[in-house]
């Protein structure tokens, strides 16, 4: 079987076309033949039934006296057979005596009167198939009503049409169709030969196996890459996309992107890059977010005969690197907080040590009482926060603020339930840590720096509010952009609030900022219900 299929593309096309055309022609011919044969049988039924009715109304039969004249009836039926396309007529009276028959020796013989009960007893007109007389036939029955004044059921007429004549007509039709089928098959052979050569020229002479191998090798190479690969024409229509790119775009692997426009997925970012590529050809890139992933898109130009014909886009996932950077930033922040806390307690220990040497025991008691009161105050303010990781973060931030001589006040009405999802709690830690760090930086130049922090539930959602009395923000629209900073210097500046925005969007929430001279308020709303579950009916998702 494999050897039969291991033929050239042209041969396969010839075989398929000839086979399909032959199948269609044979199917149509079979349907036509079936329809014609049914029509022949229907015509035979109509002819025999009409003949039976006509004979049953002949004067020789409806006259009660002539019904006993067998010779006269036989003559009439033979004459009717001669003049019409029927094969035999049988006439019987109601008692079953045969009055006319194609075999003269049967005249006068007796058949059971109830053999043709539907016509002989109930007066019905009908047709049926039978092989009782001479050969298989289509036979019609009609009742005879005889009498001078009052006509009564007195016999039955049977008219037959040989089935062999119908089969002969069907065979004649079949011979005609066979000639037509053969003609079309020969014609389809020449058409398929021409079409096969045309297809061969369109595939540049490659066989399907060779084309498949080329495409598979290309697809395997692109699929092995972690980077997404996309190709577009000059208008931005997608002409190729690999599996990694579909994954980044959140599109099922079975989806057909041919003909879709690249602007549907990258919007204004890609428009600016493509516009600039016309004036400044070469590599260019931009950063974007796709399905909660931070993606760097590198755009290169495609040339055909030294003319710009399209673009190639390489998509690289920077999410993991960004997450590692965020985690490192948080770890560094917590390390600084712990260092500040250690330094603060070291100062307390030095103070207690000095008071011990001076035997100022009342002073020691005062220092300890102040520290205990400070801890109690912190614990009371954090009493409503059940999430231990957030509570530990806030304690560390209070120690950092205290070392920098910044007053960080935790609202005593703050509350928060425990959260089981690690991704959610990590995002919240990033949001809160960066907002407080940003506030501490903002009040660095203020004579009496003060920061207020609140976390709780508002309208069922988790709300985080950070307020400071710094100098304010002049450009509220740009403060969340990556790399933007209100502070001077440093390559690491301008990423804290950007990370806040990224994680707020990741959780499906929103952030609001209100700023004026001497007061800045950051408000974050997260679709996190009491009990630690996310709100599935989030209108911002």
TrEMBL record:
Catalyses which reaction?
A: ATP + protein L-histidine = ADP + protein N-phospho-L-histidine
Among SUPFAM superfamilies, the record links this protein to:
ATPase domain of HSP90 chaperone/DNA topoisomerase II/histidine kinase, PYP-like sensor domain (PAS domain), Sensory domain-like, Sporulation response regulatory protein Spo0B
| Topology of the protein relative to the lipid bilayer | Multi-pass membrane protein
Q: Which PANTHER family does this chain map to?
A: SENSOR PROTEIN CITS, TWO-COMPONENT HISTIDINE KINASE
Describe the location of the PAS domain by residue ranges. 214-251
Q: Name one GO cellular component term.
A: plasma membrane
Entry EC number(s):
2.7.13.3
Give the primary localization class.
membrane
- Name its species: Salinicoccus halodurans
Record's SMART domains? HATPase_c (SM00387), PAS (SM00091)
Instruction: Give the protein name, as stated in the record.
Output: Sensor protein kinase WalK
- Lineage of the species this protein comes from: Bacteria, Bacillati, Bacillota, Bacilli, Bacillales
User: Which Gene3D superfamilies does the UniProt entry name for this protein?
Assistant: 1.10.287.130, Histidine kinase-like ATPase, C-terminal domain (3.30.565.10), PAS domain (3.30.450.20)
Say yes or no: keyword Kinase present. Answer: yes
Q: Which UniProt keywords apply?
A: ATP-binding, Cell membrane, Kinase, Membrane, Nucleotide-binding, Phosphoprotein, Transferase, Transmembrane, Transmembrane helix, Two-component regulatory system
List residues of the Histidine kinase domain: 340-530
The residues that cross the membrane are 13-34, 174-195
Q: Which Pfam families does the record cross-reference, listed alphabetically?
A: HATPase_c, PAS, sCache_3_2
Cell compartments where the protein resides: Cell membrane
Q: Which GO terms describe its molecular function?
A: ATP binding; phosphorelay sensor kinase activity
Name the PROSITE patterns for this protein.
Answer: HIS_KIN, PAS
One GO term of the biological process aspect:
regulation of DNA-templated transcription
């Amino acid at each position: 079987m494999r050897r039969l299929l291991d033929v050239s593309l042209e041969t396969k096309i010839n075989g398929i076309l000839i086979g399909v055309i032959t199948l269609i022609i044979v199917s149509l011919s079979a349907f036509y033949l079936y329809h014609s044969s049914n029509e022949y049988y229907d015509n035979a039924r109509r002819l025999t039934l009409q003949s039976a009715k006509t004979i049953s109304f002949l004067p020789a039969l409806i006259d009660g006296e002539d019904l006993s004249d067998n010779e006269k009836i036989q003559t009439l039926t033979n004459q009717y057979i001669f003049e019409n396309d029927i094969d035999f007529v049988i006439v019987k009276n109601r008692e079953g005596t045969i009055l006319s028959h194609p075999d003269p020796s049967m005249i006068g013989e007796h058949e059971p009167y109830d053999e043709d009960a539907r016509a002989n007893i109930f007066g019905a007109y009908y047709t049926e198939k039978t092989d009782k007389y001479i050969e298989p036939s289509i036979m019609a029955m009609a009742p005879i009503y005889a009498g001078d004044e009052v006509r009564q059921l007195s016999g039955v007429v049977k008219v037959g049409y040989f089935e062999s004549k119908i089969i002969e007509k069907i065979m004649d039709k079949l011979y005609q169709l066979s000639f037509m089928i053969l003609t079309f098959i020969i014609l389809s052979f020449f058409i398929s030969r021409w079409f096969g050569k045309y297809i061969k020229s369109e595939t540049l002479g490659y066989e399907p196996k060779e084309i498949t191998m080329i495409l598979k090798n290309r697809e395997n190479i692109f699929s092995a890459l972690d980077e997404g690969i996309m190709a577009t024409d000059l208008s931005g229509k997608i002409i190729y996309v690999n599996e990694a790119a579909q994954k980044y775009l959140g599109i099922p692997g079975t989806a057909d992107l041919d003909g879709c426009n690249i602007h549907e997925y990258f919007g204004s970012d890609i428009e600016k890059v493509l516009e600039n590529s016309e004036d400044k050809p070469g590599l260019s890139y931009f950063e974007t977010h796709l399905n909660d992933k931070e993606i760097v898109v590198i755009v290169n130009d495609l040339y055909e005969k030294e003319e710009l014909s399209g673009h190639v886009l390489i998509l690289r996932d920077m999410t993991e690197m960004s997450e590692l950077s965020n985690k490192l930033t948080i770890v560094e922040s917590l390390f600084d907080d712990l260092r500040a806390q250690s330094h603060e307690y070291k100062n307390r220990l030095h103070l207690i040590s000095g008071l011990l040497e001076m035997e100022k025991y009342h002073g020691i008691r005062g220092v300890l009482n102040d520290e205990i009161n400070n801890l109690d105050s912190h614990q009371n303010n954090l009493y409503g926060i059940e999430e231990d990781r957030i509570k530990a973060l806030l304690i560390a931030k209070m120690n950092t603020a205290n070392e920098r001589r910044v007053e960080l006040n935790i609202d005593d009405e703050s509350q928060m339930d425990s959260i089981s999802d690690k991704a959610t709690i990590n995002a919240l830690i990033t949001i809160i840590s960066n907002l407080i760090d940003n506030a501490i930086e903002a009040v660095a130049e203020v004579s009496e720096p003060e920061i207020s922090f609140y976390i709780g539930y508002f309208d069922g959602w988790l709300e985080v509010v950070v307020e400071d009395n710094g100098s304010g923000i002049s450009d509220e629209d740009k403060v969340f952009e990556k790399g933007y900073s209100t502070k001077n210097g440093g390559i690491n500046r301008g990423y804290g609030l950007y990370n806040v925005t990224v994680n707020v969007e990741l959780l499906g929430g929103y952030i609001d900022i209100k700023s004026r001279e001497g007061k800045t308020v950051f408000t974050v709303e997260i679709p996190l219900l009491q009990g630690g579950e996310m709100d599935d009916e989030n209108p911002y998702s």
